[in-house]
User: Fold this.
Amino acid sequence: MAGGRVLVTRAAHQAGKLSNALRAAGFEPVEVPVLEIRPPLDGGPLDAALRQLNTYDWLILTSANTVRAIAWSSLVDRSSGLKVAVVGEATAAAARQAGLEVSAVPENFVAESLAELLAGQVTGKRILFARAEGARDVIPDMLRDAGATVDAVDAYRNVMPETAPELLRKALEQGIDAATFTSSSSVTHLADAARAAGISFPFAGVRAISIGPITSATLRERGWEPAAEATISDIPGLVTAVARA
Assistant:
């Protein structure tokens, strides 16, 4: 597939990193953002939690979007003794840029690995888990089982941009060799965009490349067997999987 056209489904403000990496690897990125980051429908719970941030022992951030949603808030006290846990190196970099000291990063960049890493450290502790609206409950459930008190609040929500169906139609008309997926939301939103455009999903003759096992499971639920899955769940790992496919 060297030199092939590869669909990039990330939000517009995040697509550049993946597109640049694909281009450097000899592929032609085709950006069709199917995600748009917006504030939660009810921001009250997040604001209330941030106002009492000094009562928590840990803050868990699972994406750069979560960091962006909360870390620049004037309500966040960076001088407190709060420990910060993140799901991967990209999120860690965003948190550090925002002035937060990161205390825990799992070896594997998935929610289950982060929960397993923290399980022995959080008994009797209070945890604020800031997440995307509709995110899985695996982290709060596992940490509650480990004896922690976990408050899960929505920091942002993913919506499908109005332009996505038409952009997708044009991209497929011009030909796509593979489609990259960086989250389960990118799978479901691309399926929604295809339905709105009157296009069958999965796309015939297009290889699906997944960033990790959870995204792969969502692809399979939608009837699309991944042609490759990243060994390391980050952008370089995803580009390597594209090349492998």
